[in-house]
Each structure stands twice: as C-alpha cells, then as structure tokens.
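Why should sequence recovery work at all? Because a backbone constrains its sequence more than one might expect. Tight turns favour small or flexible residues, buried strands favour hydrophobic ones, and helices have their own preferences. The token representation captures these environments compactly. In the example below, the structure is given first.
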C-alpha cells in the first residue's frame, strides 16, 4: 500500500496532462495546465496521510521509540514523492515529449475496449459473473483448504510472548556463596529434566543472581502445555530451593517479551523493619486470595549482613579526630572519592576518576581494621581500629 501511494501522485499528474492534451492543448501548455490543476489536491491528500503520525508526539517515550522510525520514513518518502510528481515529472515530460508515443489519442473508447488485453480481461470478468455461484464455491473450498493446511503446520501463533520459552529467576539469600547457588540451579534443572517437552535449558549462576532460561519443543509436539510446566515450577520449585535455605525464592517469567502490564509492584515504606516484614506477609497473603493473581514474591525482605562503625569519641578526641574525619577516611579508601574528571580534547567527553584502595586491600572485614587515617592536628597516621569498633548487624 505504501509503495502504491508513492506513485499515485505522479500517476495523477500524468493522467491530467494527457487529459488536457486530448482536449486540444499544445504539449507544453498541457504539461503546465495538467500540473497546476492538481497540485492543491495532491498536497491535501499527502497531508492527510502524514497527519496520521501526529499523535506520536503526545504518547509515551517508549512507544515513540517503536514508531518514530516508521513515521519518519513514511513522511519523508511521501513528501519526496509529492515533490517529484509536481516538479520532476512535468520537467521530464517536456524533455522527452511523451505525446509522440501515445498513438491516436482520438481513438474512440469503444475501439479501445475491443483491442488487446482489455478485451481478454472483459471476457474473463463476463464469464465469471455468469458462473458466480460455482466460482464462489471454489473460492470457499480454497479458503478451507488453506486454513486446514495452516493448522497442520508446525508453527507458533504470534502472541505477546515467545510461546516456546520462559525463564526462572531465583533470588538468593544475601551473602550466599556460589556453591549454594549452584546447588539450587542443579535442583531446578533436575525438576525440568522430568519433562521431555524441555528442549534446552541455559543457566546463569552468579553470587547475587541466578537465572534459568528454558526453551520448549514446538507446541504441536507437546503432551504437557507450557502453562502446566510453569505452574509446576512455581509450586515444586519453591519447595525444592527452600531445602537449601528457607530464604531462597523464585519467580517464573514468561520471557523478555511478556506483557509488563500484567505485573504489579507494591512498595511498602517505613522505619521499623520488623513491622514492614509483617505487613509485607499480610499483603502477600491477601493478594494470593484474589482470583488470577499468582507468582507473588517479596524480594526486599532478605536481610543483608552489615557492620556498624561505632566511634569512641573520647579516644578519637585524644588523637585529634572527629567522627566525620573517620567516616570520610573510610569512605575515601573503601568506596572511593571523585577528585576530578578527565576531559577528552576530541569529542568533549568527561570521564570520572575514582581514587580508593586496591581491591586486595578491601575485601575482608579484617582489611577495614588496617586502614589509616591522618590526624588533622598532628598529621600522625593513626590505625583506624584504635578509636572505633566494628560490631556485626543485620539490615534489610
């Protein structure tokens, strides 16, 4: 359809030029008059097509990214076709004298219908109208055969997701090692191996992330549906991974292309962590009773081990230090500071520079006890362990 619209403007101009020439105008006058008469109509028809893309300006940015390429290509091509039809086509028509090869323009319409392919086409159409019921029956039988053939083909009908794929995302406990995550991955893989419908599975195991990507055989060859396998993994998978640790949890995701509008995220804020956890469990239980709601996971209740830095103000004052001096020293040497930015001469890009200890000197809690801080009064290097302690604690 889009390709036809590109040549429509030129066809209209040429038809009008020939019409004006048949009315008796000279070639050059016919070309000028033929183009001038239809330019406003062509501009209006092109504008009505382009204005369809105007609402893209007012929609979400994500949708704009999807359709702006199509809108830009269509708009530029239609405008180019309009300029060619109103400027280039009349100019070429005047240069090559298109009327020389047009034959006898005064030939009657009755004689044209009897000549060449037009006559053959007219005979076919006439016979088709005479046998319209047998012809409609043949078309209907062909349609039925086509639908039957498509239903037998080994294809997956297009949906909002990849019909033969889904993913399993596991949320490890805070501080879990790779061996524990690897054990969880093996248990999930053993569950999936029970189904011959699983064609391939790919597992990515990290310290704080575990994902299993599953690809099924084509739908026509399955005895168990995709939804049944996913429901089994939601129920049995949760029970299995909790054998490793009760704080492990998982969700079954329909894939990267799944409809995000089907997901609901509820955030609960507050200062008392125990109360927040109690409220989260209550909300989860109530939502689980709602028909159609499934796969409920609470991801931010995992407690992460942390260390509190408790500063002995008296000892710190003895060394001429404040709490801020010690905190700044810890932050600068462990997490890092940004003292400056590197500016590229070509391109003008800015690259941030971070200064901190090498990774080998800040991997363990014991390494934190060996950090030195400079006293602002005596300039003496003081071991940071002396004016403070590091008691362990748990925070969400």
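From this structural description, the recovered sequence reads:
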């Amino acid at each position: 359809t889009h390709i036809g619209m590109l040549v429509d403007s030129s066809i209209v101009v040429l038809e009008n030029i020939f019409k004006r020439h048949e009315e008796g105008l000279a070639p050059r006058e016919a070309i000028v008059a033929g183009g001038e008469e239809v330019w406003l109509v062509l501009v209006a028809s092109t504008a009505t097509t382009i204005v369809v893309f105007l609402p893209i300006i007012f929609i979400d940015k994500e949708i704009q990214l999807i359709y702006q390429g199509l809108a830009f290509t269509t708009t530029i091509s239609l405008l180019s076709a309009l300029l060619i039809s109103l400027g280039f086509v009349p100019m070429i028509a005047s240069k090559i004298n298109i009327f020389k090869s047009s034959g006898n323009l005064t030939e009657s319409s009755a004689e044209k219908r009897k000549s060449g392919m037009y006559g053959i086409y007219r005979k076919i159409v006439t016979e088709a109208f005479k046998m319209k019921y047998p012809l409609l029956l043949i078309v209907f039988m062909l349609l039925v055969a086509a639908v039957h053939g498509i239903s037998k083909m080994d294809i997956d009908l297009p949906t909002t997701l990849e019909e033969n794929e889904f993913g399993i995302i596991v949320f490890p406990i805070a501080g879990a090692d790779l061996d524990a995550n690897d054990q969880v991955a093996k248990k999930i893989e053993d569950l999936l191996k029970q189904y011959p419908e699983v064609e391939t599975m790919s597992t990515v195991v990290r310290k704080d992330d575990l994902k299993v990507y599953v690809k099924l055989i084509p739908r026509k060859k399955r005895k168990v549906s995709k939804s049944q396998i996913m429901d089994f993994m939601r129920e049995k998978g949760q029970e299995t991974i909790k054998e490793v640790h009760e704080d492990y949890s998982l969700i079954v995701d329909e894939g990267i292309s799944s409809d995000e509008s089907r997901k609901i995220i509820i955030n609960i804020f507050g200062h008392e962590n125990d109360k927040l956890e109690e409220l989260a469990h209550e909300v989860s239980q109530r939502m689980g009773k709602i028909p159609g709601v499934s796969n409920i996971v609470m991801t931010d209740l995992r407690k992460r081990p942390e260390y509190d830095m408790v500063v002995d103000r008296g000892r710190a004052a003895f060394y001429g230090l404040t709490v801020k001096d010690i905190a700044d020293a810890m932050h600068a040497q462990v997490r890092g500071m940004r003292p400056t930015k590197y500016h590229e001469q070509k391109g003008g890009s800015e690259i941030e520079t971070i200064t901190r200890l090498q990774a080998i000197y800040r991997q363990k809690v014991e390494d934190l006890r060996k950090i030195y801080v400079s006293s602002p009064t005596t300039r003496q290097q003081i071991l940071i362990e002396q004016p403070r302690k590091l008691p362990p604690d748990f925070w969400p």
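A few observations help interpret the result. The chain is about 50% helix and 15% strand.
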